[in-house]
Amino acid sequence: MDVTGLIDLKLVVASLVYSSLGLVVFVIAFVLLDLLTPKVHVWKEICEKQNMALAIFLGSVAIGIALIIASAIHG
Fold first, then answer.
1. Which residues lie closer than 8 Å to 29 by C-beta, 6 or more apart?
2. Is 5's pLDDT higher than 80?
3. Under a CB-based contact definition with an 8 Å cutoff, are residues 71 and 18 in contact?
4. Per-residue DSSP letters for 2-69?
5. How confident is residue 3, by pLDDT bands cut at 50, 70 and 90?
6. Distance CA 73, CA 47 (A)
7. DSSP H/E element including 71
8. Across the chain, what does the average pLDDT equal?
9. With 80 as the cut, is the pLDDT of residue 53 above it?
10. What digits encode the pLDDT tens for the residues 27-39?
């Protein structure tokens, strides 16, 4: 059986490009979130002060951003 028939190179490249694009948009969204909250040092609050509520909030924001990016890429 020919392995090249099982893997379409265009689909692999498209998956890598869309994954990279999604990650870039995800990072930009988190940087914007950090810039829009100048009074709160997000990572300091989570790591040093163990602020569980902020961690849960950021986790839900991350899931929301990921769902938006996935649906925008999927179409």
1. 65
2. no
3. no
4. -GGGT--HHHHHHHHHHHHHHHHHHHHHHHHHHHH-TTS-HHHHHHTS--HHHHHHHHHHHHHHHHHH
5. low
6. 32
7. helix 52-74
8. 85
9. yes
10. 998 888 888 888 8
